[in-house]
Each structure stands twice: as C-alpha cells, then as structure tokens.
Design a protein that fits this description.
six-stranded mixed beta sheet, binds magnesium ion, Rossmann fold, alpha/beta, binds adenosine-5'-triphosphate
Length: 264
C-alpha cells in the first residue's frame, strides 16, 4: 500500500538549474553547472555570506535575470517540465513556485489583515468599477488566514506589524497562503524569537509532509540540521557539496570555509 507521504514524494516538484551564470559589474557571483532541488522534501542551502545563495534563489524566480543557462521546473501542479528561466516572475506564484524574502519587505501602512489579503488577491476578485471585491476576497480566505493568525498568535490583525520579526513572519505567512508546491525560504527565521522559529519549523515540516518541496537558506544551523533531509553547500557562486546534514557538518571544506573550528 502506498502511503500519503510516499505518494506526495513521488509527485514532488523539482527545479533543475543548468549552466546558470550571473555576474554583477563583471564579477561572476553565481556559476552553477548542474543542480537539482527537490529530490528530498526539505533541502538546505548553506554557505558563507556572499556565496550567492540569495542570487541563486532570485535567478530561480527570475527576479534576477540569468546571463546564461536554463532553469526548469518539473511536476508543479501536475504539469510536465517548464523552462521557468524563460518566464516572467509573475508566472511563478500562480503555478506553485513561491519565495520568501531575506530582507524584510512590507508596507508601512497596511494592517496585518490587509497585508495577508494582498497576497491572495488575484484577478478573479477584480470588479468593473472597483479594484477588488473585498467581501469575496475576505470570505474566500479568512479561514486560512485565521488559521495562521491563531497558530502564530498574532492577536488583533487590524493593526500594523509591530516589529521587524513580525514583518518577517508576515512575509512567510503570505507565502504559505499561496499554497506553494515549491517553496524557497531565504533566511526565514533570521530575527525571529526562538518560540516563533520553532513554529516556522513546524509549519514547514507539515507543508513538506503534504508534498511541497522546500529549499531553505539559513545561517541558524540548528534549523538546518533539525529540518533538512539534505543540504547543499555553496561557496563562491557554486554548489560544491551535497549530502546529509551529518555529512555536510563534518566535511572538512565546509568546516574550513564556513563553520570554523570548534563548531558543534
Ligand atoms: N544587485 C547586485 N549588484 C551588485 N552585486 C550584487 C547584487 N546582488 C548581489 N550582489 C553580490 O553578489 C554576491 C552574492 O550575493 P548574495 O546576496 O547572493 O549572497 P548570499 O549567499 O545570499 O549572502 P548572505 O548569506 O549574506 O545573504 C555578493 O558579493 C553580493 O555583494
Ligand atoms: Mg542572502
């Protein structure tokens, strides 16, 4: 008998990065020959500051244009292979590929509720004489929004996000509300208190169990070692190693270039 988890794994979407190069001001910052993401439910992407992790994620979303190379998405929304490096960024989220932001991106003057609603607003809610039909938008999404508001104990949603951590969390919730099939998280727990970090870890695990592929960039290595089934190590623009968390944390190159002596 095939379990739900097994079934979810078989249809798990993958991203294939081939010969992808990006330079800024004549300096190559990403040069990835052949990388498959999504073999395992939750994969980590780690490496020193400036290794190119965020740039690689942005190249996948096509919010940074590639100099050359190809990025393909397989199995998202039951479809075949799609060359996403040919497609605009706005194509990604409606087709299941979603990314959170390393740097906090939020509106100063939107309430928590409005900010969440904005993530789920699509053309279907547009009406001839107004931009959105707010009532439908609210009714269709309040259950999911309430679930996350309760889970993360956000309290009154008719207020502005009070702290950097809350804004960061809101960015993650907006990603979750989009029901991603492939989720890229760029330092999701940076600046979050420990109890909220634990909740983010829990929610990511649940998502992966249901068949979403997750790739997570994080400098908090406890999160990586606890959460990831596999880890990619990136240095100077290239993914130089791939292995289990145990293999990666013991590898001499990783220790030398990133972890330093005496790491745990
Ligand atoms: N828009 C840009 N213009 C010029 N240089 C850039 C730009 N974006 C990134 N870089 C450079 O590319 C390199 C890779 O940066 P990137 O942000 O991808 O690294 P990272 O691995 O995410 O680092 P961190 O762990 O600090 O977030 C860095 O040297 C950075 O300064
Ligand atoms: Mg980064």
């Amino acid at each position: 008998m095939v379990s739900d988890t097994q079934q979810a794994t078989e249809t798990r979407p993958q991203i294939h990065v081939q010969n992808a190069i990006k330079s800024f001001n004549g300096r190559v910052v990403v040069d990835v020959d052949d990388l498959v993401l999504g073999d395992q439910p939750i994969e980590g992407l780690i490496g020193p500051n400036g290794a190119g992790k965020t740039t690689l994620m942005r190249m996948i979303m096509h919010s940074t244009a590639l100099d050359s190379g190809t990025i393909t998405l397989s199995n998202a929304n039951g479809g075949g292979d799609v060359v996403i490096s040919d497609l605009p960024t706005y194509w990604m989220a409606p087709h299941g590929l979603v990314k959170s932001n390393q740097v906090i991106m939020d509106f100063d003057n939107l309430t928590i509720l409005d900010s969440m609603l904005l993530a789920v607003a699509t053309a279907k809610y547009e009406k001839p004489h107004r931009i959105f039909d707010e009532r439908d938008l609210y009714d269709d999404n309040i259950e999911a929004m309430q679930e996350y508001m309760d889970f993360f104990e956000l309290g009154d949603p008719i207020r502005f996000a009070g702290s950097a951590g809350e804004k960061k969390l809101l960015d993650i919730i907006r990603c979750l509300l989009l029901e991603p099939k492939f989720l890229l998280l760029d330092e999701p727990t940076a600046g979050l208190p420990e109890d909220v970090t634990e909740k983010v870890v829990e929610v990511v695990r649940k998502l992966a169990d249901k068949g979403t592929s997750v790739v997570i960039v994080e400098h908090d290595l406890n999160v990586i070692w606890n959460l990831c089934d596999e880890v990619h190590f990136m240095a100077e623009g290239s993914v130089v190693l791939r292995g289990s968390p145990e293999e990666i944390r013991q590898n001499s190159t990783v220790v030398e270039k990133y972890l330093g002596e005496g790491h745990v």
